[in-house]
Amino acid sequence: MTQSDTSVNTLAGGLLLDVRDLKKFFPIKRGLLQKVVGSVKAVDNVTFFLKEKETLSLVGESGCGKTTTSRCILRAITPTGGNVLYRTAKGETVDMARIPGGELQSLRREMQMIFQDPFASLNPRMTLLDIVGEPLLVHGEKKSSVRAERVAELLRLVGLRPEYMRRYPHAFSGGQRQRIGIARALALNPRLVVADEPVSALDVSVQAQILNLMLDLQAELGLTYLFVAHDLSVVRHISDRVAVMYVGRIVETAKTEALFSRPLHPYTEALLSAVPKPDPRLRSERIVLQGEVADPANPPPGCYFSPRCAYATDECRTETPEQRELAPEHFVSCHRAGELNLRGVASGKAGE
Amino acid sequence: MSTSENSADTLLSVRDVKTYFFQDEGTVKAVDGASFDVKKGKTLGIVGESGCGKSVTTQSILRLVEKPGRIVHGEIFLRKEGGEEIDLVKLAPNGPEMRAIRGGEIGLVFQEPMTSFSPVHTIGGQITEAIMLHKNVDKKEARKIGIEALRSVGIPKPERRIDEYSFELSGGLRQRAMISVALSCSPRLLIADEPTTALDVTTQAQILDLLRRLQNENGMAIMLITHNLGVVAEMADDVVVMYLGRVVEEGPVDDIFHNPLHPYTKALLESIPSIDSQPRVKLPTISGAIPHPYNRPAGCPFHPRCASRIEGRCDAGEPRLAASGDRQKVSCFLYDSEGRKE
User: Fold this and answer.
1) Closest Cα in chain A, distance from residue B171 (Å)
2) Residues A85-102: tens digit of each pLDDT
3) B341 burial class (0-12, 13-18, 19+ CB within 10 angstroms)?
4) How many CB pairs under 8 A join A and B?
5) Across-strand partners of A94?
6) Is the CB of residue B252 less than 8 Å from the CB of residue B71?
7) For B156-185, how does the pLDDT look when each residue is reduced to its tens digit (9 = 90+)?
8) Does residue A180 carry a pLDDT above 90?
9) How far apart (Å, rounded) are the C-alpha atoms in residues B85 and B4?
10) Which of A212, A230, A278 sits opposite B229 (nearest CB)?
11) Residue in chain A lying closest to B233 (CA)
12) B342 falls in which pLDDT band (50, 70, 90)?
């Protein structure tokens, strides 16, 4: 595959990323000869787009493929199929899913990652100067004085004192470590930042600090975030748009406000209702889903959610629903979307 | 050592407990004077962030504090079935009385259902072990009780599941199995230490529902330890808020959420993003971070991060937990001995 082949698809203005029919299957091997007996469809026909300078959140429960999707986009793993069209800083459109490995490094400057666990993602034997300066070194900044200057600037940007740069990560708290991780991600002036559960390992009083920092940095540096999370309250707080995943597929994509107040997919409704609200006066009758999440190695026929869905019909159990755009930028994969009257959460602090 | 001060509906009474860990680098005061009551048949939520001593408090109650830790002060009264009270602190940690209470009178559900089951024994083996330890039954009978226990927590096909290993179950089923072990000896108090933290929201909803149903059926008290304020608001009757080993505020759940008194409780409630809050607005934050246990601030432990601290007072003296109004207790200098705002 060459670039001429992918540049056929050029991205419309304002789009940074266009993911089309992305697939990632992991083979299941059995026996002495490691024969492939099946595959786990971790990501199965995922389609979404990301506009410049916006935040899109991928939400879903563990094992739904949200992390695998984000890793495919960064080409940390190679997808099985589909396209990941990305518009570079120069304005060219490249397909991240097919671009040869040699051309990846220059693109990696433009896309960076913030990891979940600030204790595991920082090397305990490296100082902050080494950790935050490493991307600069890898991308050709050989002069240590220049690196130190840039590291100091980055530390200030994320709210840490530049004097700390000779210290090791163990001297910092969880929230401070996450700031270090963010500084490292910003070292090369990326355009796209993929944040995989960046606050879920932090204490609640520190989560707010990191979320505010991410909002500030986005406004200041014009970043585009792909935010991977399972906590819907955090997602509501940070996102412009939200994509809900279930067993490797996106079931609903919409603007944050629309998705939370008027969900169109029954799974989104159940997910929203399951979140405990921090107000004892709002103890509501929750929708408690029966059964378990489908096995991605052996999914049910038709809509994967149909065995647990209260609204499922015979059609749902046999036919896979297509993604439809029911309202502007409100995509949903459900046969009965539109005819159902689903419950969202009210906006503002008011009750339902 | 009868204490008539505790009313008859108090099941467990923790009185000024201090659990310290003596290490070479210094003493960690993990729990530093915690007091609260668990009432019969009610749910007490204990809220706090990491390092607030909520887990060490449960370890102290169950006498599972490991060396170099030690309960250095305080009393923990458990009211027995007959009505008499015993002080758990005075019992030998591994003596027969304590062993009968642990798992018998008090059941325990841990956070990590993966690590709290042994991977080399079947679920059934671990349930029957607990049952045979606390009830005078043979293996066959214990297995029957075990299958019923698994059925009561909603595990499908319990006759088959009982012979499986913990890694063959999903996270939600594993946590259900854990609860069934804790409940197999019909405890009167269930201590649930972050029971849903490792679970997804829809599974969390299932487990919380289950705990509520079981409480309605058998009237046990639940001590629910969590950092998730949403879970507390859904489940608790009363709430204890802890910070750095101290109880900073205590009261009925509605008052804690709608009339918080302590600056820490207020700040905590304001700083959490809520599912019904406005998107993309800045959240109020609590400045700074939780101090390292070796560098505990002098005076009120929260004062370096507190927006309404009084210089010269909060960093000098330690406030005591005192009643404020009829229902709440608060430990803060902003409130005088009668609990009025000064």
Assistant:
1) 10
2) 999 988 889 999 998 888
3) exposed
4) 158
5) A86
6) no
7) 888 988 999 988 888 888 888 888 888 888
8) yes
9) 10
10) A278
11) A280
12) low
Query: How many residues are given for chain A?
Result: 352
- Interchain proximity B254–A278, CB inside 8 Å: no
Find all residues with CB under 8 Å of A96, minimum gap 6, and list them. A73, A74, A75, A84, A85, A86, A107
Asked if the model's pLDDT at residue B33 lies above 60, the reply is: yes
Q: Are B327 and B255 in contact (CB under 8 A)?
A: yes
- Taken in order B167, B169, B172, B176, is the CA torsion positive or negative? negative
Burial environment of residue A168 by CB neighbours within 10 A (0 to 12, 13 to 18, 19 or more): middle
**At B108, phi and psi to the nearest 5?**
-135, 130
Nearest CB neighbour to A205, from listed B271, B274, B278 = B271
**Contact indicator for B226, B47 with CB cutoff of 8 Å:** yes
Report if pTM > 0.90.
no
CA dihedral (B258, B339, B320, B266) in degrees, to 10, reads: 20
Residue-wise pLDDT for A237-276, tens only, equals 999 999 999 999 999 999 999 999 999 999 999 999 888 8
> Quick check: A280 and B234 CB within 8 A?
yes
Residue count of chain B, please give it.
342
Q: Mutation test of the interface with chain A: which of B49, B52, B155, B202, choosing the one with the most A Cβ atoms within 10 A?
A: B202
- Assess whether pLDDT exceeds 60 at residue A7: no
Per-domain boundaries in chain B: 106-186
CB-based contacts of A91-97 (< 8 A; 24+ apart in sequence): A92/A7, A93/A6, A93/A7, A93/A9, A93/A10, A93/A11, A94/A3, A94/A6, A94/A7, A95/A1, A95/A6, A95/A9, A97/A22, A97/A72
In DSSP terms, which residues pair with B15 in a beta bridge? Answer: B75
Q: Tokens 């190695």 label which residue?
A: A297
pLDDT at A350 over 60: no
Q: What is the pLDDT of residues A14-35, one digit of tens each?
A: 899 999 999 999 998 888 888 8
Beta partners for B243? B246
Question: B112, B163 in Cβ contact below 8 A?
Answer: no
